[in-house]
Amino acid sequence: MPQERSSTGRLFGMGLLRWSGPLRQVQKAIVFAAVSLNPLPASLEGACHWFQRGDVDGDGRVDIADAVRVLRFLFVGDAGAGLSCLDAADADDSGQVELADGLWILRLLFQGQTALHDPWRRLGPDFTADGLDCSEYPGGHSLSLELFEDSDAVVIVVDRSASVADDGALETMRNDILHAFCALPDGIEVGVIFFDRYFFRWPPRGAPVAVDELTREDMLGFVARFPSGIGTCFRFALEEALDMIEASPAREQAIVFASDGDSACGTLPFATEQGTLEAVRARNASRAKIHAIGMGSLSVPGKQFLRTLAAQNGGRFLELP
After folding, report:
1. pLDDT per residue as tens digits for the range 155-168
2. CATH fold label, 51-139
3. CA distance 142 to 41
């Protein structure tokens, strides 16, 4: 489903809290809000090719063997150099594999001065538009895809609060989702929710949408561009995920909830971690598996919340590397 547009940004289904009635009960309200998104990457195609820059041989580390492989490729014409991912050999992200790339890796190793261009500390996508290919690269799997690959419909709920954004966990999770979505076959129903104090959802209304060429591009753009936020309150984001799943006729359903597990939406019973667990368990009744991914620096209570959420709803708990 294409996103609705406005003159100030793109419109998304936005969830917020609304007080009503003499007892000031809390209800969820859905409005359409224009969101200022991050710039669109130069090439979304790069979202579908994961590698670690500088790790030319794909053994999981950047070392002198990688620099030697680049030099052999350039000056010996050695087929054994095995550059199946030219992007990994492009250390300076110039769009070409050249002498400077081998030297860049050597300076990193022996002078400790020059960091490589991302992604180099871990596997990730490259959104630079260039002609380099990365059709094959060992390793690199998506935690998200591991959790929902057997599902017919999935909603991914992602914490975008400052506590997970500041240490890079939001960016890592964003890349993980992009990698998962690239691998999805057409026909699987997908929805995405980002939350802080509020939540924003794709598609803007209704059930998850079936993946095809058009919706995949729109979905990748939404995930790649959505910014970090302020504050965190996951109760209503989880309820919205259940709304989306319940609107789907798919037989095998899953929700993937990624967060540090710490909520700050108040002390009222509806907003506490325990109140959220009870409400989700009662409503879900194991209809959809709910998996949890721990993001960032997990507190003991936060990790316990995530473990319990998954255990009570037939899901698994994993931690983001």
Report:
1. 999 999 998 998 88
2. Type 1 dockerin domain (1.10.1330)
3. 20
